[in-house]
Amino acid sequence: MTAQPAAPSGPFTPEAARSDGRADLPLYAATIAMGLSAGLYFAFDVGVMPGLERGDDIAFASTMGHINDAMENGLFGMVFFGAFLATGASGIRLRRLGQARAARWAWAALTLYSAAVAVTMKVNIPINRQLARLATDASGGELALLREKFRGTWTPANTARTLVCTAALACLGRALALRGRP
User: Fold this and answer.
1) Which pLDDT value is given to residue 4?
2) What is the 3-state secondary structure (H, E, C) of 67-118?
3) For residues 14 and 95, is the Cβ–Cβ distance under 8 A?
4) Residue 2 pLDDT
């Protein structure tokens, strides 16, 4: 009879990951934050932007400005940056726990979410800031051009954020399903 090798012991073993729910906390946090992000972008796609299209240029600029101002708060920042940090931490944690398949899905989610962050920083935020600068002093024609920029650039960029965040959420769901498996 041959002796079985002793299973590794300690806090960072696959066995510990299966029995210690704390190992899953970054993955749960990432999944929740990603779902909130995808949902926020989706709400803009299906409700906010179509609703703003029903008003005139002044109402559009004013309302979008108020929405942008309201979004700049600690809770939104926590979700926006927390999704990124928790997803990265999940990938690291899963890898350290020997859960390579689940870790790969977390890394895929991080890659997708990084694309959403890049679109936000390179497209959506600059247009939001331009709106804030110009909306109060703009003429009717300038507001119409600014609104067209939203329609032609900001809105498709937001749809891209919705899609990549939803795909990232699916990847995190797969990582959740695979966690605890080598």
Assistant:
1) 53
2) HHHHHCCHHHHHHHHHHHHHHHHHHHHHHHCCCHHHHHHHHHHHHHHHHHHH
3) no
4) 53
Residue 12 has pLDDT above 50, yes or no: no
Give the separation between CA 27 and CA 89, rounded to whole angstroms. Answer: 8
In the chain, the percentage of residues whose pLDDT exceeds 90 is 73
Position 17, amino acid? A
Is 14 exposed, middle or buried (CB count within 10 Å of its CB: 0-12, 13-18, 19+)? middle
Residue 16 pLDDT: 45
- Euclidean distance between CA atoms 98 and 40, whole angstroms: 34
Structure tokens at 115: 């694309």
Joined tokens for residue 113:
């979410």
Dist. CA 182–CA 101, nearest whole Å:
7
